[in-house]
Amino acid sequence: MESRVQKKPKERIKQAALDLFYYQGFHSTTVRQIAQRAGVNPAMISYYFKGKRGLLEQLMVQFYEEYFNVIEQHQADDIDQGQLTPYQRLLSTLSASFNYLFEHYQMTRFIYRELTIDSTLIREIMTVYLGKEKYYYITLLEELKQAGTLRSNDVEMITLQLLNTLYMPFLQPQMIRKVYYIEPHSDEFKQRYLEQLNFFVENCCR
Length: 206
Description:
Blueprint: H1 9-24, H2 31-38, H3 43-49, H4 52-81, H5 86-103, H6 105-114, H7 120-146, H8 155-171, H9 173-179, H10 187-204
Helix pairs in contact: 1-2, 1-6, 3-4, 4-5, 4-7, 5-7, 5-10, 7-8, 8-10
């Protein structure tokens, strides 16, 4: 693993910001704290990101762009394989989504926490990226509906329930840990939860 010294200043700043945003929250973190943790001059944050808000925006955009690249590549691979039913492609996409969110646990937790706060940036993120995610899943569920294998015609509500179930472990880790006595960032939890996500999809289908 690269040490802080080996990483380029821009990458050190992004990692330092993510660590501090995650533990302290965006509004409680100062530019000086980020610079100190990254081992750089505070002026470098303005140089690279135009300030703390620009740094937050770049972290979020990078997270979602990589997320959709994973989904799109996964869907392209599924199409190349051929012979997959809409149901199988939905399960495959759901698995790819959950694996990405789980592998980027710290960033996922931070972003979903920030999404509960109303701001211009968050509204933009919702419009562009969450709207795109909704489109992907609605498209897959519409294929199931057209094939006559979806139990309900209310595709929007199924999409809403499915995505909320996908997000829940990253929104409520303390509840999972303290009430269910399961570590939400463990491989055991990941496997068990993904199995239940698949079961949710199965129950939506005939």
